[in-house]
Write a structure and sequence with these properties.
Length: 261
């Protein structure tokens, strides 16, 4: 019912298979020694190529057992002929192995070349896209400059057409202030006036006004006369003099009240 969590995986703790030492009796050649060159990760576990190698070794041992003895000249010639045939077979097999290896290398080389071409195509496409973006940006900037120059020349022509004779005119202040579309009320940006430039610097940002803690601190620092207002009743105005006459200001207020009613 309990589980454990280790710091390592089972694959990290797995070691290579153990190969114990061995002793070969004298006069015996065990078949297992043909696999002595194979190790774990390099031929083991055995695949199709290793099985074919084992079968060829068995066939060669069987062929060596069928070789005639070297007791007379005829047997020696027959033995030499059989060995020449076996040597030709081995050379043919070796050529086939070399051809297979070259085909595998050729396939790998083809894949590498194809991958390099794909990478080069991607790089060329990216480079062309960058060039296109730069040309588009330069084109837009050139069009903006042409439009700006066109507007400037049109304004110059309009101003020149207004004053064909080239006479100097005095400034008409009354006309400027009566026309709400003039430079006085609506100045243009192209003459150097920027109404919305750096407008954020006029925004008031205060800790005591924008935060609740600042408001509490500001309220605590104020005197009681600010938070606790005491209203005094106004005293009535004295409209009668010491001698008993009504003042002129009082008579005027009464007359104004009557006129208002």
């Amino acid at each position: 019912t309990l589980g454990t969590q280790t710091d390592y995986r089972d694959g990290e703790t797995q070691t290579d298979p153990f190969s114990p030492d061995y002793v070969v009796p004298g006069g015996s050649v065990p078949e297992l020694l043909t696999l002595a060159t194979l190790t774990w990760g390099r031929g083991l576990p055995a695949g199709l190529a290793e099985v074919e190698m084992i079968e060829r070794a068995r066939e060669k041992r069987a062929w060596e057992a069928t070789l005639p003895a070297m007791d007379n000249a005829s047997q020696i010639a027959k033995r030499r002929k059989m060995m020449d045939e076996m040597e030709r077979k081995e050379w043919a097999f070796r050529e086939q192995e070399i051809e297979k290896l070259q085909e595998v290398r050729l396939e790998v080389l083809k894949k590498l070349l194809q991958r390099r071409e794909e990478n080069q195509d991607k790089l060329d496409a990216k480079r062309l896209d960058d060039h296109w973006q730069n040309y588009q940006k330069a084109k837009e900037e050139k069009m903006k400059k042409i439009q700006h120059d066109c507007a400037l020349m049109l304004r110059k022509l309009i101003a020149k057409r207004k004053n064909v004779m080239g006479k100097l005119e005095r400034r008409d202040i009354i006309k400027e202030y009566t026309d709400f579309a003039s430079q006085t009320y609506a100045p243009l940006t192209r003459i150097g006036y920027f109404p919305d430039n750096h407008s954020e610097r006029y925004v008031v940002e205060n800790f005591y006004l924008n935060t609740f803690a600042g408001l509490c601190e500001l309220e605590a620092s104020l005197p009681d006369s600010v938070t606790q207002v005491k209203i005094k009743a106004p005293k009535p105005k004295c409209t009668i003099t010491e001698t008993g006459f009504i003042k002129r200001s009082a008579r005027l207020e009464v007359e104004l009240a009557q006129v208002h009613q």
